[in-house]
């Protein structure tokens, strides 16, 4: 992509203190966007923004729970109050809580739904309202997962939420296309992040299971996200892009 593909654009990214979300913010800022970077962990958010500032990117850290409407409203207000517009909203925040279906706790179920579904739905709603008011459209992007396509042991609740965000994107084509707002999802497979690398066997295991011979990097996912929220993808909406090195084609289990 051209270095300044997103010059003059303003983006919100939730759950972006590290991993895939941070890389999305870093690439957007590196290509000219002003980025509102959210994370529930204030220290992570501030450190991530500082790293982007060090690369001469424009980034505002917003600490808070991305599933709370108060945090969402604050991000929208910062985007429009400080930068005068909102062009892109990326619902990246998510939580994975493993557990057997037969004994899965109600508290874990409610937490997974709140972060993965409530946060996505209401960020999309608030961003779309602002984009409609502006009158020139925009892009929404939701973070799905290969577990929304293929069964994975101990991830019934999580996989359900990821299938749901893909259905939300398809349904919003009806609601948002008249306002020139496109909405898509990406579904990463195994990805090397700070969280997954806490498992010493993760990279070796998923390198063996992935047809391309390695798990994804955050940059692999961010590259796809930037395409879908960029001007070259304005006529793409209601679609999902799987980024898994071919894993869903054969779906070998790590168990």
Description:
This protein is of the alpha/beta class and 255 residues long. It has a single domain, classed as NAD(P)-binding Rossmann-like Domain (Rossmann fold). Helix content is 44%, strand content 15%. It has eight helices and seven strands. Strands 3-2-1-4-5-6-7 form a seven-stranded parallel sheet, sandwiched between helices. Strand 2 (34-39), helix 2 (42-54) and strand 3 form a beta-alpha-beta unit. Helix 1 packs across helix 7 and helix 4 runs parallel beside helix 5 (156-176). It is globular, with a radius of gyration of 17 Å. The N and C termini lie far apart (39 Å). The mean pLDDT is 96.
* Rounded Rg: 17 Å
- The residue fraction in helices comes out at 40-55%
CATH architecture: 3-Layer(aba) Sandwich
Which strand order spans the largest sheet, edge to edge or round the barrel? Answer: 3-2-1-4-5-6-7
Tally of individual domains: 1
Strand fraction band? 5-15%
Number of helices: 8
Tell me how many strands there are. Answer: 7
pLDDT averaged over residues: 96
Order of helices and strands: EHEHEHEHEHEHHEH
CATH fold topology: Rossmann fold
The CATH homologous superfamily name equals NAD(P)-binding Rossmann-like Domain
Structural class: alpha/beta
